[in-house]
Amino acid sequence: MSAVGILLRPEVPAPPPAVRSVWPALLRRPAARVGLTLAAVLALAAFLGPLLTVDPDVPDYATKLAPPSSAHWLGTDHAGRDLLARTLAGARTSLGAALLVMTIAGVVGLLVGTLAGAIGGVVDTVLTRATDVLLGLPSLVLTLAVVGVLGPGFWNLVLAMSATSWAGLARLARSVARGSMRRPDVLAARMAGVGSVRSIAGHVVPNVASQVVVAATLGLGEAVLALGGLSFLGLGAQPPTSEWGTMLATGRETFAYAPWQLLGPGLGLVLSVAAAALISDALRDVTDPGRAK
């Protein structure tokens, strides 16, 4: 290509490096390393724990409400089921459900918010009004209403929470997308002849996605607590399925003389929320240059 051709066809700038790769900066932060370590431990417990322990759903009434011992590290419940096995199996159910809810909500919020912020006009008006209507309703009440229509159950609860969790992420995505459309690299790409779809996909979406991931990661801890709370009320996974909220509801009945039943699911909830909070705070610092030290 001639020098004149090069001048007439300026190079399209790449997205900011912080958007393309945050892992090196993330791993340099002690809080992020602690959070990722906790998350890795919880993930291993969820996926490998049920393979290394006894069947969590098989009752043994001869050993019911046994205290912690070498045979049952966390004791047994009212049906004689091993609480360590049920806690590890419950990690798969609770964490898997929360991750599924936030993944669905994140994808929907990213698509809706990016379309509204990047396209504007009638599309922005319609999508923003729909988002505002959903945000104007109490999410917990709306979730209870959806579960009331669908009926209690694990998948119905996941669907209800997914349907009510995307609006806040969509509003965040719209705000970031509107700001990203005025960034120098996006304007330069448009001036270089890059089409709207390609410039949005290559320059706007990565920046929006990084912010949505941060918010969704923080929301992951909240989703674990919400799922546990609704399951505690009997709206989620039904017995004998192992789930932390259901286990807490069962252990409440015998707390006065068998308090060890609350140890496993309670500790799982605390560690899950702590891991999500540490990782999301570190992600926020890494992806926001104004907060980075």
Account of the protein in words:
The structure is a single chain. It contains twelve helices and no strands. Helix content is 71%, strand content 0%. The chain is elongated and about 75 Å long. The chain has a single domain, classed as MetI-like fold. It has helices spanning 3-8, 17-20, 23-27, 30-52, 83-119, 121-135, 139-150, 154-180, 184-191, 196-232, 244-252, 263-287. The longest helix is centred in the middle third of the chain and has 37 residues, at 83-119. Helix 4 (30-52) packs antiparallel against helix 12. The chain is mainly α and 293 residues long.
Provide the domain count. Answer: 1
The CATH topology comes to: MetI-like fold
The overall strand count is 0
Radius of gyration: 23 Å
> What would you say the CATH architecture is?
Orthogonal Bundle
Distance N to C terminus: 43 Å
What is the helix content? over 70%
**CATH level 4 superfamily:** MetI-like
Q: What portion of residues belong to β-strands?
A: under 5%
Shape: elongated
N to C succession of SSEs: HHHHHHHHHHHH
Low-confidence runs (pLDDT<50, min 5 residues)? 1-20
Count, helices? 12
Which helices and strands appear, and what pairs or packs with what?
Layout: H1 3-8, H2 17-20, H3 23-27, H4 30-52, H5 83-119, H6 121-135, H7 139-150, H8 154-180, H9 184-191, H10 196-232, H11 244-252, H12 263-287
Helix pairs in contact: 4-5, 4-12, 5-6, 5-8, 5-10, 5-12, 6-8, 7-8, 8-10, 9-10, 10-11, 10-12, 11-12
